[in-house]
Amino acid sequence: MQRANDNSQWQLGLVLLVAFITRIAWWIGHVTAIENEGAEYARLAMNLRDGVGYVGMLGGEQVLFPPLYPKLIALFSLFVGDPETAGRLVSLVAGLALVFAIYRIAREIFGNSVALIGAILAALHPLLVGLSVTVYSESLSAALISLGLYATIRMIRQPSFGRSTVVGLLFGVAYLARPEGLVFATIAAAFVAIAAIRQRQPAQIAVRHIVTLLLATAIMGSPYVTFLSVGSGTLLFEGKTQVNAVVNDRLRAGMSYPEAARGLGPNMELDGPYLVADQFELLQHRRTDPLEFLSPIMSNPYAKVRSLVYDVATSRPLGLPFVGLLFAIGLTALRWWRTSLVEGGLCLAFLGLQISTLLLLEFRFERYLFPILPLLLPWAAAGIERLSYVASRLAQRFVSGARARHAISIAIGVGLIVQLQLIAFPATVVELDESRDVHLRHAGNWIKENFDHPNPTIATNGTVVPYYAHGTLHYLPFAPAPLALRYLHTIRPNFVVVVSSDKRQAPYIADWLQRGIPDRCAVPATVVRGPDGEVVNVWRWSCADANTDATAS
């Protein structure tokens, strides 16, 4: 038994080493610039580190993103200096922790063989490799949720107050990276109760375990809840739902996403929530019904479910539908329900929550599907193990010798893993292509080097250029061109930046790219061309004060 444990630990260590090498290779080969959302995280971290506060790219307080990831970036940046590098290092450590967590989850439910396959899948899946070196929070949140899931399984099998505390703390920390952590804690508590009933634990002890779990989660999350509630003037557990509710309502009114998010009213009203710099101000003045977040699923639920199922089933970055087939085989071919019914049910409940939360949005980007993948992998690994086993049994009819049959089994398993990589890799490269937008980095650096004062104000449609320019972002509004120009005269930016890939972001973008900005204040400054033909046009806004602005108008 000891030898088997030693072998499994050695194998896990080797897989973790491979995972580390593949992620470093991706970093070197595929990363040249920070991602659009990553710039927001890095700026939050920079401002936290420098004592400015929880202030993002827009220059106001931020409520959309929970604080754990920016705080970890700020901590790592004390050692490496650059917040972008620090963010990638945090994601890298989290990505390796995710490999470990998937190994442990699969081992608890299916055994050592499936655990090793699951770890290999997590180590080599292109999407998880790529996410592990982005400045996105998905790698961190997936690792914390998976570690919380593993800790809950251990708690179910060997209940103790220490384990229930660890589970609660893990989900409390997960909440600080992703708000669903609170719901995961509730699901974990429910399954702890189910396990206690099945194991006929004394009710008093079971209740104490559950209360300990939930209390630990509440203690860990309470400072952030206090921050949101004090700033907004009402009890809030997270801020993103409130902003999404505004966007959802505008989408249901027939607007496109750019108009719903950044629409400017006819009298210069900041109707789109992303035009508001201080998001606490948005929450204070735009109250929504507490149950309004259910509106997307309540309106035409059948169509919403059908659309979501299709999107999940055809997500190439996740490796679907191939991973889905392996998942189905693992779910049905191994009789896990005989030995791990509660534990397996817990895993499936977590998966169901990750998928069902996507029904609460009127809009859905491919990235929103990424958290589903880690919860699919233990079952996909079980599917690979079953197919390999069936192949070895069939080989008995044609091949003599245990070693030969074992080699066939391994070859089948390796082939299935390679097939998954071939499916997911091209789509992952496309989906994570923001990491390769080096021309946006060059444009931001040009502004920083050619502007005499710190913190230039930049009107554009993304965060990357303002991030590298060390500037403040104002989103270009979705509005008719004359109204957009009035808006620019109101905010008086130092620069206006328009990227050729943003033509659909506002009605006037294509015309400005072709003919320039029709305003005396807009002075062409530079043009930066990307390797794929994308063009970044930079104008200096020459109207430095209100008097000049009025003259130019």
From TrEMBL:
InterPro entries found in the cross-reference section: LipidA_mod_glycosyltrf_83, RgtA/B/C-like
Pfam short name (any one): PMT_2
Protein's membrane topology: Multi-pass membrane protein
Molecular functions (GO terms): pentosyltransferase activity
Name of the molecule in the record: Glycosyltransferase RgtA/B/C/D-like domain-containing protein
PANTHER family: MANNOSYLTRANSFERASE YKCB-RELATED (PTHR33908), MEMBRANE PROTEIN (PTHR33908:SF11)
Main localization category: membrane
Glycosyltransferase RgtA/B/C/D-like domain: residues covered: 66-219
GO cellular component: plasma membrane
GO biological process: lipopolysaccharide biosynthetic process
Compartments where located: Cell membrane
Signal peptide: none
